[in-house]
Design a protein that fits this description.
Distance between the termini: 128 Å
Number of domains: 1
Radius of gyration: 34 Å
Structural class: mainly alpha
Strand content: under 5%
Length: 301
């Protein structure tokens, strides 16, 4: 394949990005799915805006505009993409509020760790290497890709325990991100080991991203799936209850109301009610009163 053909394929694959993304935006807007997945909708729109700045700069040879547009767009795209993972996570754990809160806390810690790692990489970059900003962004990008792959693997394994259908839109969003992330990480490993060239990595990466956009388009076109209700959800419900008990432990003096309830239930089940006790007693109140007053018979009228 000649260099001109390679460059043409590169341009066609790159130009296909906004075309397919606008199709996804149109389907989501028509089906009002932008209300269910607002962060994902924002991510798709932002990618179209980035293309409007980066592609003309690349074609015109304006390296300075291309460099800053590309890397600033990549930083913002990574931030929104990480938030999309959180949005998918919240949709999957929607019925399990305690698990959802735990996942939100874990995502906050993951974001903090990635920022710290990026700062360390930027500070440790030598002057002879590439820009510290570029190296830190690449580090964060790989961390986000690993999380995206992990999310897909998690859904593939635990989807039936959570009642998530594999035709569900949130599953399709995660599958698109995860498949593209897996291809990108594999290409990075091949490139760093010297097995493939830069142009091969770029073209393959663009083709994989286009495939992910097509996957999103197909999932957004599907009818909204109802969450499955199976016996396997009992396991997730036990996890939910266990975490809820850890967050709100039973107080030590809460045994008293429990025993009071047991006594009340025992009394209500007893056939001898309190009203019948005096009638069944051989010494009626009148007899006891007469004995106390020294009378052996009933009181005289």
């Amino acid at each position: 394949m000649t260099l001109e053909m390679v460059q043409l394929a590169h341009s066609v694959l790159w130009f296909a990005h906004p075309t397919l993304q606008l199709a996804v935006v149109g389907v989501m807007w028509r089906r009002k799915m932008h209300r269910s997945f607002p962060v994902f909708f924002t991510y798709i729109l932002f990618e179209v805006v980035v293309f409007a700045f980066v592609f003309p700069a690349y074609r015109l040879g304006n390296y300075r505009q291309y460099f800053y547009s590309y890397w600033i767009g990549t930083i913002i795209s990574l931030a929104i993409g990480f938030k999309v993972i959180h949005e998918v996570f919240l949709d999957v754990f929607r019925p399990f509020h305690t698990l959802k809160d735990l996942g939100t806390l874990m995502f906050k810690w993951a974001a903090l760790v990635m920022l710290l790692v990026a700062g360390v990489v930027a500070a440790a970059s030598s002057a002879a290497s590439d820009s510290p900003l570029v190296e830190s962004v690449l580090t964060v990008q790989r961390c986000v890709r690993v999380i995206q792959v992990g999310l897909v693997m998690f859904l593939l394994v635990f989807s039936r325990y959570l009642g998530v259908s594999r035709r569900q839109q949130s599953f399709g969003i995660a599958l698109g991100f995860g498949s593209f992330a897996a291809v990108e990480l594999f290409l990075v490993a091949l490139y760093l080991s010297g097995h493939v060239g830069e142009m091969t990595v770029s073209i393959t990466n663009m083709a994989a991203y286009n495939a992910s956009i097509v996957m999103w388009l197909v999932y957004m076109s599907l009818r909204k799936q109802v969450r499955e209700s199976t016996s396997t959800l009992l396991l997730s419900q036990r996890w939910e209850q266990s975490l809820a008990d850890l967050q709100a432990p039973v107080a030590a003096d809460s045994l008293i109301p429990m025993f009071e309830g047991m006594v009340n239930r025992a009394l209500t089940r007893n056939p001898l009610s309190l009203e019948t006790l005096p009638a069944s007693n051989p010494e009626a109140p009148e007899s006891r009163a007469a004995a106390a007053s020294g009378q052996s018979g009933p009181p005289k009228s």
